[in-house]
């Protein structure tokens, strides 16, 4: 851990901000990503009508293109931040996000809108990578996991309210108004960071951008069993979550006929993740990252199996689907911060590059899995149930390999 105050808890690396403001700022910049994703869900039919999109599944591109920019952008954000510091890369990414939001507001065609979405994703790549790197600059181990959990609790609350917020915007304006709101939020977060967020990477710890040094950092990250293993496992479980988000509007309005009440159902389910973030922040210091995340992965697998079985038997009612989806979100919330902390724990000396590769691996795997499941949507939940189950089994198998079959037990040092 870096220099701390008398309480032995709060890092001095993020002064002048106190602990609470630090967590809120980290959560706020991380929230740019899910806000830009989930506010769009109620607007997809409106966008389809505006641009005369004939195939409903093609509207998922509004979400997946955003994630492609997000995943690809993370490859470069970490090395840049390791060389030039966290602040300039973060502020530059947030500026790109704001400009992309303006482009989306005035987009004359569906293709231009998709370009704007890709640029928005590119901008949020900086916010996610730099947020993780800043936390790693200031904290390590279980304390890092606890800080990440507190930030994730706020961050994950965004998907709970974002669709309802998007629906509220649609009540007073057209779908382009959502991008106006996203732009204003981005500018507010940018101003807060300019005024309050310090540089957390000292000059003495910055790394060269020479190809040999960058490749060396990539090699150190990609050859570390714990980092790559947890990144791959996280990508698999995120893939199922992406598929859920991609299909949510079609499932709730097409299969269960909820109409304008879809955002309420989505919010009720997403609340499970926020609850999990709160519990994880309370428990991780006592139980450890492995005990909690491995237990959550086991629950995630069981939920996937029950969903596949009930859908195969034709008894997956709305009530049961919502319960299982809430459990899916809860277990995901207990996993994600811990998987991130476990992957990043051995990479403190190259936190920016490691955060980039971790984010890229998880996002790109998630996109491939999520799009494969989402584009197979056929008006039933069977493709989603099968994809959810298979991707979860893959994640469990990967963690078993990483941990050499030893689940639920903490290690005294990271696996090399």
UniProtKB/TrEMBL annotation:
InterPro entries noted in UniProt: Efflux_drug-R_Bcr/CmlA, MFS, MFS_dom, MFS_trans_sf, Sugar_transporter_CS
Keyword Ribosomal protein among record annotations: no
Keywords: Cell inner membrane, Cell membrane, Membrane, Transmembrane, Transmembrane helix, Transport
Segments forming domain Major facilitator superfamily (MFS) profile: 22-406
Family annotation (SUPFAM superfamilies): MFS general substrate transporter
Name of the featured protein: Bcr/CflA family efflux transporter
Biological process terms in GO annotation: xenobiotic detoxification by transmembrane export across the plasma membrane
PANTHER family reported in the protein's UniProt record: MAJOR FACILITATOR SUPERFAMILY, POLYAMINE TRANSPORTER 2-RELATED
Entry GO terms, CC: plasma membrane
Stated family: Belongs to the major facilitator superfamily. Bcr/CmlA family.
Subcellular locations according to the entry: Cell inner membrane; Cell membrane
Domain of life of the source: Bacteria
Annotated TM spans: 22-41, 61-77, 89-108, 114-135, 147-172, 178-197, 228-252, 258-279, 291-309, 315-344, 356-375, 381-402
Molecular function as annotated in GO: xenobiotic transmembrane transporter activity
Lipid bilayer topology: Multi-pass membrane protein
